[in-house]
Amino acid sequence: MRRLLVLAVGLAGVLAPARTAAETAAGSQLDGCLSCHADAAMTATLPSGESVPVHVDREKFTSSVHASLECTDCHAGYDAYPHPARSAKNAAEFKAGFLDGCKSCHLDKYEQAGDGVHEKLRAGGNSSAPSCIDCHGAHDVKKASEPRTRISETCAGCHFDVNGKWAESVHGKALLEKGNQDAPVCTDCHRSHDIPDPTQQAWLVRVHELCGKCHSDPEKMKKYGLSANVVETYLWDFHGTTTQLSAAKDSTETGAPRPTALCIDCHGVHDIARADDPDSPVLRANLAKTCQKCHEGATENFPAAWLSHYEPTLEKAPLVWLVKVGYLVLIPFMIGGLCLQILLHLWRVVVNR
Fold first, then answer.
1. CB-neighbour burial class of residue 225 (10 A; exposed 0-12, middle 13-18, buried 19+)
2. Which residues, 6 or more positions from 351, have their beta carbon under 8 angstroms from its beta carbon?
3. What's phi and psi for 261, nearest 5 deg?
4. CA 20 to 30 Å from 199, out of 69, 116, 129, 133?
5. Which of 167, 165, 7 is nearest to 86 (CA)?
6. What is the 3-state secondary structure (H, E, C) of 204-246?
7. Are 34 and 56 within 8 A, CB to CB?
8. What are the beta bridge partners of residue 53?
9. Cβ atoms of 53 and 11 closer than 8 Å
10. At 200, phi and psi to the nearest 5?
């Protein structure tokens, strides 16, 4: 943002009537800058022929979190007039300059953003990839998570379709309709600055860890009458075990085959519904259709062979529970007996020497 203001001030020198440094220095720095940049129609034309806005709204700036800053805190070197010549040759370079401006105060976020998918896209030549001001604004920067709905609204600026699905999901409705602050928003799953590529295998096979941040929290799940063992039970079964052993955990490939089933394969991604919702893919009536995505030809009885997230008990799957208890007793007994036999054999060998 600071860079924007610096460049905006600099560009004013091209577009506004000439003035002296002494005139600009009179009064506060903001007043001096706004003597040119208060013009709502003020733009600058870059060498590429693109026009960029260089207007600053006083009211928005003075009500932003940066209201206490001087213009040159962000736009260093632009305290004198004429301003230094701008280096940006097109709108993409103009926007990219803001990242360095923000870095002086937000170094940690700057470093995180460098590892994020947005910065990698921009470094690869995608001029549409968002920079700091696309998410936070320029002179109207507010606290990113106040209100919490601001986060999804920000992401919706580019990811409109995804936001629409999330808004209709159990998570989106909880926040938007009921004001439930426990409901996850985009950054809870995707992070904020070091956003990973969600198509990478390494990210996908760790989806259960993302879900587990909330669904393994006993206190949070107790509030909603949900089990906090869903991730644990998932990792116990063959789906979860396959995921844990997968080589894809360290893969940066995208679009390649990956282990299934992950949480999102059964429950959905952004359109997750309540488990008792008539349209939920994990509702008993819809399970066969969900299984058929991987198990071609699965019949209506197919899901019955799987315990899902249930833990075997005498009440639920008693036969499985009895077999489990039997193994818990039998396996230590057999291994212990084998060890005892070996020890006795060794003892006899030593005694008979």
1. exposed
2. none
3. -100, 140
4. 133
5. 7
6. HCCHHHHHHHHHCCHHHHHHCCCCCCHHHHHHHCHHHHHHHHC
7. yes
8. 43
9. no
10. -70, 140
Tokens 């799987």, residue located: 306
Both tokens of residue 56?
């600053």
Residue 269 token pair: 């991604």
Mean pLDDT, 10 residues at a time, the chain of 353 residues: 43 40 53 91 88 92 92 85 83 81 90 91 85 90 89 94 96 96 95 91 91 96 93 91 83 78 94 94 92 92 84 85 92 95 93 82
Residue 338 CB neighbour total at 10 angstroms: 10
Q: Assess contact for 56 and 37: CB atoms under 8 A.
A: yes
Which residue is it, tokens 């701008």?
86
Please identify which residue in the block is written with the tokens 């059964």. 266
Contacts of 258 (CB under 8 A, 6+ apart): 201, 204, 205, 246, 248
| C-alpha–C-alpha distance, residues 280 and 283, integer Å | 5
- Rounded (5°) CA angle 315-325-215: 60
**Phi, psi angle pair for 171, to nearest 5°:** -70, -45
Place of tokens 């009458």: 225
Extract long-range pairs of 219-227: CB within 8 Å, 24+ residues apart. 220/182, 223/182, 227/309
Amino acid at 80: A
Residue type, 94: F
Whether 27 and 44 have beta carbons less than 8 Å apart is answered as: no
Contact by Cβ (8 Å): 269, 161: no
Condensed to tens digits (0 to 9), the pLDDT of residues 260-296 reads 889 999 999 999 999 999 999 999 899 999 999 999 9
Q: How many CB atoms lie within 10 A of CB 209?
A: 11
